Amino acid sequence: MNIIKVKNYKELSMQAAGIVAAQISRKKNTVLGLPTGQTPLGMYQELIKRFRKGEIDFSQVITFNLDEYYGLSPEHPQSYNYYMWQTFFNNINIKKENVFIPDGVTKDVQKECRYYESLIEKKGGIDLQFLGIGDNGHIGFNEPAIALNSKTHLVNLSQATIEANSRFFNDIEDVPRKALTMGMGTIMKAKQIILLASGMKKAPAIAKTINGKVNTEVPASLLQLHRDVTIIVDKDAARDV
Ligand code: F6R
User: Fold this and answer.
1) Which residues, at least 6 apart from 57, have a Cβ–Cβ distance to it below 8 Å?
2) Domain-located, residue 192
3) Which residues contact ligand 1 via a Cβ below 6 A?
4) Is the pTM higher than 0.90?
């Protein structure tokens, strides 16, 4: 694992955006894997700035999101689909047909999961996968457990995640209890992985990810088995490393 320690969130976002820009200038039709949540917001803002300055062209870029709440339609303001368009895609020149996010209101979960996996394959696999990390060490919505599903699947969110994510909802009761998520196997197939972590709350999970034993109770620790992982952490998140 390659660890990059930065001063603060701003520097983390700049570094992450720099990696995306360099990747797209090397390969115009890059396949990106993207997270939602608080952590990547600064990176998305910086990428929008660079796009407006004419420094990045997203016209051939393809994206796959990590996850989506089960039961939320793309128009729902708390859906990850809505988040991605509002915070990022509407502000760059990406083509709608090149954006892929699991369908949270699918009538056939099994079929949707299989379809998502096959689409990733069809597009040549993910070149560069960005990740956030849950306070509990989850990656995507792969929650700590004695065993994990490898491929895209429907998952029950843990109580810790429901509580952590309630900050984005008016009421904790409104937080969906299930989500569709890429599996750890899907994620581990990406050619390169960048995990971003900022803030003191992430410090224990980051320490276990980097220095702990590989185990499914800390899904992020599985990343130790990948050949090309970079963790960009700010001072607070790196406190226990
Ligand atoms: C979201 C996702 C999650 C988040 C994680 C951290 O698409 O995959 O694993 O990355 O819960 O969320 P924040 O960045 O809000 O702390």
Assistant:
1) 24, 28, 51, 93
2) yes
3) 35-39, 66-67, 132-134, 138-140
4) yes
